[in-house]
Design goal:
The chain is an alpha/beta fold. The chain has a single domain, classed as Rossmann fold, CATH 3.40.50.1820. Helix content is about 30%, strand content about 15%. An eight-stranded mixed sheet has the order 1-2-4-3-5-6-7-8, with helices on one face. Helix 4 links the parallel strand 5 and strand 6. The termini are far apart.
């Protein structure tokens, strides 16, 4: 929810200053997806407050308890599927996973609100936001350890819990179909979920490293031990209607990494790769609005 107090306005101003510092300092500190800044960040509680303040009016926080994790969500008032039974779900990126190229953070709660800034402000009720395990989770989150936002960030444990949370949202919204929109590492999660479910009718990713092995090779960093790779699911994903956005100025996930995933699809009739020339990894994606909410063109291939 939005809040209008002077204290929160000052907090938001401080946050914007920190984000500007991040933009200037991120490259010397490293290129990992979750790297947010070198020092001076808001603490996790302040980051949660900023996230809630950044959400459009009418969105409210919710904690979804899965078998292993408590997952933070934002849901609009009157939450329900659209007239055609479709629920659109945004999935958060990797967040603040690293302090430096080699040092994991103690809490992966995101610093920037890239995903939340894309939530609709027009009163739609058929949209939800899901954070990732251990983000916005408070000082003593269940079953959380640093592997879950580093090497095992796309592990079977994580995908299983995200799938449970998604199923609970689908049931609550009385949805029959799901459109997944994932940013950065959230796009990896979205793709892995789409490969495992029969209710996903559309997959949209933004700046997502859909070949995590190619990502590691490109940046000369060790592979993510314990993580799954969407490229390995290409056979199952080939019949999902999908659009993938890459940033022409994205040095973290350059379009070539998306090329690797696209080339693995046996049938490319269902998939489109669109390069936004002016977008970088964390900026420029507001240009996708309102087209981000348009129906994804369906393909002629039936899902198995």
């Amino acid at each position: 929810m939005r809040h209008g107090s002077n204290a929160n306005e000052k907090l938001v101003g401080m946050f914007q200053t920190i984000v500007q510092h991040w933009r200037l300092s991120v490259l010397p500190c490293g290129i990992l997806l979750g790297l947010a800044a070198c020092a001076g960040l808001p603490d996790p509680a302040a980051r949660r407050d900023l996230a809630q303040s950044a959400a459009p009016a009418g969105f409210h926080p919710r904690t979804i308890s899965t078998n292993e994790f408590d997952i933070f969500a934002l849901l609009p008032s009157g939450f329900a599927a659209g007239p055609d039974g479709t629920l659109t779900v945004f999935i958060e990126g990797d967040g603040y996973s690293y302090v430096s190229k080699t040092q994991p953070s103690s809490d992966p709660t995101p610093v920037r609100q890239t995903v939340i800034s894309l939530l609709p402000a027009d009163g739609r009720h058929d949209v939800a936001y899901l954070a990732r395990p251990c983000q916005f989770a408070g000082p003593a989150p269940r079953h959380c350890d640093r592997t879950l936002w580093t090497g095992a960030r796309y592990s079977e444990r994580v995908i299983d819990s995200m799938g449970q949370a998604l199923s609970l949202l689908v049931a609550e919204a009385h949805a029959t179909h799901v459109k997944l929109i994932g940013y950065s590492g959230g796009g990896v999660i979205a793709a892995l979920l789409a490969a495992r479910r029969n209710d996903v009718v559309a997959l949209v990713t933004i700046a997502a490293p859909l070949d995590v092995a190619a990502f590691a090779t490109h940046h000369h960093v060790p592979p993510l031990q314990g993580s799954l790779n969407p490229r390995d699911e290409a056979a199952r994903l080939g019949s999902v209607a999908q659009i993938h956005y890459a940033g022409g100025r994205d040095k973290t996930v350059p379009p070539v990494i998306l090329d690797s995933y696209m080339n693995a699809l046996a049938d490319k009739n269902c998939a489109r790769l669109i390069v936004e020339d002016e977008a970088a990894h964390g900026t420029g994606w507001e240009a996708l609005l309102p087209a981000l909410y348009d129906p994804v063109p369906q393909c002629a291939v039936a899902r198995p």
